[in-house]
Design goal:
single chain; mainly alpha; Muramoyl-pentapeptide Carboxypeptidase, domain 1; 5 helices
Length: about 120
């Protein structure tokens, strides 16, 4: 399984998040992978993330709150060990974010279907 949305598919760090528990994204991380998560939660839910976190590409408190709100709204909970949503971006969360971003991009920029005309 691979990420398909334009915002996530080229990021190796987030590809690992999709398949490895050890690659969960948590508070304190910094990087392009965090910036992509920030873009997605702002785009999908209109979340507000602090300017300092955005400029530093840092997974800080406002990013964590946006992720938590996203997960609560969609009831993303791993019932094998959780009873409530958390602010970690793991396998289920990145898959859900990617699915929604892919669906949104396909509605916005649908792929052109090639039509073959035979004479």
């Amino acid at each position: 399984m691979t990420l398909r949305s334009n915002v996530f598919k080229t990021n190796e760090r987030l590809q690992r998040t999709l398949t490895l528990d050890s690659a969960h994204v948590t508070q304190g991380e910094i990087g392009d992978h965090v910036a992509r998560i920030q873009v997605a939660v702002m785009d999908l839910d209109g979340s507000i993330i602090s300017e300092s976190e955005l400029s530093q590409k840092r997974y800080g408190p406002s990013t964590a709150a946006a992720v938590l709100a996203y997960k609560r709204a969609r009831k993303i909970i791993n019932h094998s060990y959780q009873t409530t949503a958390d602010d970690i971006v793991g396998k289920m969360t990145i898959a859900a974010l990617d699915k929604e971003m892919f669906e949104k991009q396909e509605k916005t920029f649908p792929r052109r279907r090639l039509v073959c005309l035979h004479k």
